Amino acid sequence: MRARVFVTLKRSVLDPQGKAIQGALETLGYPEVEEVRVGKVIEITLKDGERSAARARLEEMCRRLLANPVIEDYRVEFEAEPSGARETEPTSAKDPA
Amino acid sequence: MRARVFVTLKRSVLDPQGKAIQGALETLGYPEVEEVRVGKVIEITLKDGERSAARARLEEMCRRLLANPVIEDYRVEFEAEPSGARETEPTSAKDPA
Amino acid sequence: MTPELIAAHGLTAEEYRILREILGREPTLTELGIFSVMWSEHCSYKSSRIYLKELPTQGSNILQGPGENAGVVDIGEGLVAVFKIESHNHPSFIEPYQGAATGVGGILRDIFTMGARPLALMDSLRFGPLEEPRNRYLLSGVVAGIGGYGNCIGVPTVGGETYFADCYSHNPLVNVFNLGIARRDRIFTARAAGVGNPVIYVGSKTGRDGIHGATMASESFHEGSEERRPTVQVGDPFTEKLLLEACLEIMKTDALVGIQDMGAAGLTCSTVEMAARGEVGIEIDVARVPQREEGMSSYEIMLSESQERMLLVAKEGREEEVLSLFSRWDLDAVVIGRVTEEPKLTVRDRGRVVAQIPVAALTEDAPLYRRPVSRPGWLDELGHLDLQEIPDLRDGNESLLRIVASPNIASKAWIYEQYDYLVRLNSLVLPGADAAVIRVPGTSKALAMSLDGNGRFCYLNPRQGAMLAVAEGARNVVCAGAKPLAISNCLNFGNPENPEIMWQFAEAVRGMGDACRLLGTPVTGGNVSFYNETEGNGIYPTVVIAMVGLLDDQTRVLTPWFQNDGDEIFLLGPFREELGGSEYLNLFHHLVAGQVPSIDLEMEKKVQGVCLQTHQAGWLLSAHDCAEGGLAVALAECCIGGPGEPRGARIHLEGGQRLDGVLYGETPSRLVLTTPPQRSPEIEALARHQGVPCLRLGTVGGTSLQIRVQGRKGAINLPVAEIRRAWQNGIHQYFEEQSIRDGLRGRIHG
Amino acid sequence: MKFGIVVFPGSNCDHDAYRAIREGLGEEARFLWHKDQSLGDVDCLILPGGFSYGDYLRAGAIARFSPIMGAVTEFARRGGLVLGICNGFQILLEAGLLPGAMLRNRALKFVCRFVSLRVENRNTPFTHLCRPGQILKLPVKHGEGNYFADPDTLRLLQERDLVVLRYCTPSGEITVDANPNGALKNIAGVCNEAGNVFGLMPHPENASAEILGSVDGLFIFRSIVSSLKKRSDGYQVA
Ligand SMILES: Nc1ncnc2c1ncn2[C@@H]1O[C@H](COP(=O)(O)OP(=O)(O)O)[C@@H](O)[C@H]1O
Ligand SMILES: [Mg+2]
């Protein structure tokens, strides 16, 4: 069973990294980008088991270790759900320019 | 329009941070965790427009800036799609221990 | 205004009554917020001011004492050293990485605000025992945060100090020091002047971060404090680097009248203090302030503690020049108001007045308390120590290996290797010595600096503890071959409303003042951090002294480490055995008790004088201060602490009452010196002439450290490699695996 | 000889490189602003250490798009000597001027310490004054110095002798313990196939004066000067 944990900065917290990336994208010719925020995604492979129990455990892991509750929010998702969210497969970037 | 770009280390690249988290989770009493890998999620807010064009632009951003093809893969997703993937709402962690 | 609202702003009913009287009306919410931060302990020093006034602040080379953003000391050749130490205890407890990082950001701004280029950082840290995972997490996060900010902006962290004790478990201390160099004729002050001159905001946009930071730093922790978390600020060292370079560049022109960083209480404090110093008024419109979030109120904008912002007053007509310079550095810069004649702070929001307060009401007329003091009754009991009841040491070897591995004494390399201590090419003595030394660019001079403070001593005897801290600071600087110049200080205490805490504070300030007077090192500034307690458990009263000294010749730097086989080893200073408050008693007998070692400041001064004189004469090869762990630890450090291979030594000591007292007693005013053998008679003669005890201890050589004590068994004979291993592992052992895990949290740049 | 030192926003060893060139080496140096389009008449380019753009996203990722990078690439293409130190190395990797990529240090911590480095290739303009197997003592100070290359690239690096420096013990052995960051095969510095672009994680500028405890960094700077002198006088770049 695979889960993804998203750890993102709270909205009100300054994200200097996001700001810098946005600036870079603008210079590179992407004026359509209005805001960029950077977070972590933690992909966790779990021994198979019941999903709802796993969720509770994962959320506990978030509170105890994975997220820093002072400045971050977290969210748990399971992979391989029947979902329209994953439109593309992982892509190996080829062309660095 | 909001998109999420996932940038993750290629499978062939060692992820010491993931390893460390896994070790920590094990010590904290989560033996069910088999593997952990850490990546970035870059949330991008775009001016509204056509999705397929936006996707092409986002993938270009990934190739040019957001991912380093030597070590990373990327994937683009759009948010707010009718999807079962988002099961929980962002949660503000409360318990720091 | 409801009583709840007033209380939530940290104001007492009486303070509120005075506030209304001053205004002659009810305050607006924005005004209440402004009063609340300006009258907070953090900004107003209402409990401490009457004591701090008594400190010696004058000296022939002191150009700026307390009152500006940092102290300024003349170092000759048209240059000045600008330095200051600040606490960031509360924010670091709530969020160690960001709390420590923004502490570094803040102290850097204090220095470059004055026109100085920051050249050296140091940090003074206190945590609970490393056995506790939470303390490891805090230490990891704080160290990563200090490094994260300092390394990125490119200011070396050249030294510091770190201690562990139970009392810091729920209240870690993070004090950061910065020193910069400026030209004497180009010092800037935080004064507004010139009616009509533009007031300019530069730097990062204002967000909702840190609102109430100053009031938070002015109250104790209790259950629920963690709920205040959204006030945590995130540092952006990259933006600060741009801000630093841009500010130093604009300072080369004559467009500026005054400049002030926005630290605690942000826009409020900077506007008020600039107006107060210049005896003028300032009028701003918050709508012009660059904002990061939507819908911010005037209250929030005035109280925000967003980082990396500065406030400038420029000459009228020079606006464009200033704004365009900052835009070249990709920084926001906006004229947000003007200097006015009437000494009032006027805040508008799209033209509408939302606050108007006489400047004096926020500064001079802020409350001032002579809080009740009372000497704690428990001190007598603590002071009592019957050594008869404590068995003397039997196995010297085992004890030495154990004490050098105690985290309070062990190598701090695990910490300082996370800091760039080399950038800018000035670092002459790296972390690990008694004092750090940097060369002063463009001259042949160098500056030595040290942070010192033994909380245990201050706890047992605050007055004496503070004196000991000043003396140790001066001694550390002397060990580098420098002449002590002046201090800055950080006073970390519990709740001042508790008369016992207030007594500790009063005593400590007195002790610090006396020592500074006698040693000729005036106080150029500092910082008071009260309310360091959680659920009523206070910390040791912790006085941290930042001592700065000057070397005229940067090629004549002294280090603590033994140099050559055959060199002769001396102990300069008194030979006593005082175990009260020692690391030994704490470690081996779990005792924090006894009389702290007595200090004779006249003797201290003479010891330092002899050291400097013999160094001047070129007779010294090394000098090391005896501090925590006493003589045996000092000798071990001389053998193993240097960057090269460890060196052995053979030592012979005469008599003494107890073996542990001789080896580990912490009598102050003592230095371990080495000289080439042919210089021994000269050193002895000079010391005798000055009335300073000088004992020949032995010689450098071999691969083991042997310490024999006449008439006693169980002395020390250990391979230096083994001692070094124990010393290097003391802190490291807690982090082999854990470091990674504990360090994870609190890091956002994953 | 004239060294050009590129200043990116967030560079912080620019000044150190400048001082090392002027005071340690006694040569000329000048700063080049990242927004400049041309390099002027410099003989060697240095991309200094620091945290360009705060190291946000990835070290060097944003800086490599600076306006000046076009001219830097052109300069390198024509055979001009380019030295990337630490963050400068990371920028060269991101720009594709050198092979490989940087990962975070194995211990996930910033590390600042003097290390020993074995000179693996003396046939470069940057190292030819070193003795065979010479061991240099230079400091590292970085959080992302864990060099990585895929197996093909690694093979190429080894076949073509592009590995210039490796972390080693003081006596010259290549061991795991001597590796401060987990870099693949203890690689501390690599050059391109033409040999005119060199990137390294350690800081030679921090070992450029006796008073700083080591002058080993001067071997690299002096090699550059001597190879520039050896090149034909008519040699032109930029
Ligand atoms: N937090 C720290 N940051 C940087 N350096 C530190 C820190 N803690 C200790 N050090 C360094 O470790 C050495 C030993 O510190 P300390 O035991 O306080 O020395 P001393 O007793 O001589 O004052 C000093 O060189 C000091 O600069
Ligand atoms: Mg000390």
UniProtKB/TrEMBL annotation, chain C:
<feature type="binding site">
    <location>
        <position position="529"/>
    </location>
    <ligand>
        <name>substrate</name>
    </ligand>
</feature>
<feature type="binding site">
    <location>
        <position position="110"/>
    </location>
    <ligand>
        <name>Mg(2+) 2</name>
    </ligand>
</feature>
<feature type="domain" description="PurM-like N-terminal">
    <location>
        <begin position="432"/>
        <end position="550"/>
    </location>
</feature>
<dbReference type="Pfam" id="PF02769">
    <property type="entry name" value="AIRS_C"/>
</dbReference>
<feature type="domain" description="PurM-like C-terminal">
    <location>
        <begin position="195"/>
        <end position="349"/>
    </location>
</feature>
<dbReference type="InterPro" id="IPR010918">
    <property type="entry name" value="PurM-like_C_dom"/>
</dbReference>
<dbReference type="Pfam" id="PF00586">
    <property type="entry name" value="AIRS"/>
</dbReference>
<feature type="binding site">
    <location>
        <position position="45"/>
    </location>
    <ligand>
        <name>ATP</name>
    </ligand>
</feature>
<dbReference type="GO" id="GO:0005737">
    <property type="term" value="C:cytoplasm"/>
</dbReference>
<dbReference type="GO" id="GO:0006189">
    <property type="term" value="P:'de novo' IMP biosynthetic process"/>
</dbReference>
<dbReference type="InterPro" id="IPR036676">
    <property type="entry name" value="PurM-like_C_sf"/>
</dbReference>
<feature type="binding site">
    <location>
        <position position="527"/>
    </location>
    <ligand>
        <name>Mg(2+) 1</name>
    </ligand>
</feature>
<comment type="similarity">
    <text>Belongs to the FGAMS family.</text>
</comment>
<dbReference type="InterPro" id="IPR041609">
    <property type="entry name" value="PurL_linker"/>
</dbReference>
<feature type="binding site">
    <location>
        <begin position="87"/>
        <end position="90"/>
    </location>
    <ligand>
        <name>substrate</name>
    </ligand>
</feature>
<feature type="domain" description="PurM-like N-terminal">
    <location>
        <begin position="67"/>
        <end position="182"/>
    </location>
</feature>
<feature type="active site">
    <location>
        <position position="42"/>
    </location>
</feature>
<dbReference type="GO" id="GO:0004642">
    <property type="term" value="F:phosphoribosylformylglycinamidine synthase activity"/>
</dbReference>
<feature type="binding site">
    <location>
        <position position="261"/>
    </location>
    <ligand>
        <name>Mg(2+) 2</name>
    </ligand>
</feature>
<feature type="binding site">
    <location>
        <position position="86"/>
    </location>
    <ligand>
        <name>Mg(2+) 1</name>
    </ligand>
</feature>
<comment type="function">
    <text>Part of the phosphoribosylformylglycinamidine synthase complex involved in the purines biosynthetic pathway. Catalyzes the ATP-dependent conversion of formylglycinamide ribonucleotide (FGAR) and glutamine to yield formylglycinamidine ribonucleotide (FGAM) and glutamate. The FGAM synthase complex is composed of three subunits. PurQ produces an ammonia molecule by converting glutamine to glutamate. PurL transfers the ammonia molecule to FGAR to form FGAM in an ATP-dependent manner.</text>
</comment>
<keyword id="KW-0067">ATP-binding</keyword>
UniProtKB/TrEMBL annotation, chain D:
<dbReference type="GO" id="GO:0006189">
    <property type="term" value="P:'de novo' IMP biosynthetic process"/>
</dbReference>
<keyword id="KW-0315">Glutamine amidotransferase</keyword>
<feature type="active site">
    <location>
        <position position="203"/>
    </location>
</feature>
<keyword id="KW-0547">Nucleotide-binding</keyword>
<dbReference type="InterPro" id="IPR010075">
    <property type="entry name" value="PRibForGlyAmidine_synth_PurQ"/>
</dbReference>
<dbReference type="GO" id="GO:0004359">
    <property type="term" value="F:glutaminase activity"/>
</dbReference>
<dbReference type="Pfam" id="PF13507">
    <property type="entry name" value="GATase_5"/>
</dbReference>
<comment type="subunit">
    <text>Part of the FGAM synthase complex composed of 1 PurL, 1 PurQ and 2 PurS subunits.</text>
</comment>
<comment type="function">
    <text>Part of the phosphoribosylformylglycinamidine synthase complex involved in the purines biosynthetic pathway. Catalyzes the ATP-dependent conversion of formylglycinamide ribonucleotide (FGAR) and glutamine to yield formylglycinamidine ribonucleotide (FGAM) and glutamate. The FGAM synthase complex is composed of three subunits. PurQ produces an ammonia molecule by converting glutamine to glutamate. PurL transfers the ammonia molecule to FGAR to form FGAM in an ATP-dependent manner.</text>
</comment>
<comment type="pathway">
    <text>Purine metabolism; IMP biosynthesis via de novo pathway; 5-amino-1-(5-phospho-D-ribosyl)imidazole from N(2)-formyl-N(1)-(5-phospho-D-ribosyl)glycinamide: step 1/2.</text>
</comment>
<keyword id="KW-0378">Hydrolase</keyword>
<keyword id="KW-0067">ATP-binding</keyword>
<keyword id="KW-0658">Purine biosynthesis</keyword>
<feature type="active site" description="Nucleophile">
    <location>
        <position position="86"/>
    </location>
</feature>
<feature type="active site">
    <location>
        <position position="205"/>
    </location>
</feature>
<keyword id="KW-0963">Cytoplasm</keyword>
<dbReference type="GO" id="GO:0005737">
    <property type="term" value="C:cytoplasm"/>
</dbReference>
<keyword id="KW-0436">Ligase</keyword>
<dbReference type="InterPro" id="IPR029062">
    <property type="entry name" value="Class_I_gatase-like"/>
</dbReference>
<dbReference type="GO" id="GO:0004642">
    <property type="term" value="F:phosphoribosylformylglycinamidine synthase activity"/>
</dbReference>
<protein>
    <recommendedName>
        <fullName>Phosphoribosylformylglycinamidine synthase subunit PurQ</fullName>
        <ecNumber>6.3.5.3</ecNumber>
        <ecNumber>3.5.1.2</ecNumber>
    </recommendedName>
</protein>
<dbReference type="GO" id="GO:0005524">
    <property type="term" value="F:ATP binding"/>
</dbReference>
